[in-house]
UniProtKB/TrEMBL annotation:
PANTHER family: 2-IMINOBUTANOATE/2-IMINOPROPANOATE DEAMINASE RIDA, PROTEIN HMF1-RELATED. Belongs to the RutC family. It comes from Ancylomarina euxinus. InterPro entries: RidA (IPR006056), RidA_CS (IPR019897), RutC-like_sf (IPR035959), YjgF/YER057c/UK114 (IPR006175). This is RidA family protein. One of its GO terms (cellular component) is cytosol. One of its GO terms (molecular function) is deaminase activity. NCBIfam families: Rid family detoxifying hydrolase.
């Protein structure tokens, strides 16, 4: 059985996909970009500010689904440029201090809406 998760605190999907889907005790969170729902726009600043907003958006979806960052088992981090990796990694480390999830990080040619950072997440209960 699938359960579709939609948090009002996180940005709405900008295409034909869900914020997150839970199936058999596993939560799959779509890639989150740095949109602040209070403004509907990207947060001001660079990689640090964008990574912080992305992690907040992930947290809102985890919370809506009844999960927490401690339940996260895998992240995929996408960056517009690997020169932002150290800053993104520092922000990411504020959310995962021990028993960190598995992770992959890639630089990609472009991200939606010109984002500098996008992170997708998988959590398990």
């Amino acid at each position: 059985m699938k359960r579709f998760i939609n948090s009002e605190k996180a940005p709405k999907a900008i295409g034909p996909y869900s914020q997150a889907v839970e199936a058999n005790g596993t939560l799959y969170i779509s890639g989150q970009i740095p949109v602040d729902v209070t403004t509907g726009k990207f947060v001001e600043g660079g990689v640090r500010e964008q990574a912080e907003q992305v992690m907040k958006n992930i947290g809102y979806i985890l919370e809506e689904a009844g999960y927490s960052f401690k339940d996260v088992v895998k992240s995929t981090c996408l960056l517009s440029d690997m020169s932002g990796f150290a800053v993104m990694n520092e922000v990411y480390g504020e959310y995962y201090k021990e028993d960190c999830p598995a992770r992959a990080a890639f630089a990609v040619k472009d991200l939606p809406m010109g984002a500098l950072v996008e992170i997708e997440t998988i959590a398990v209960k």
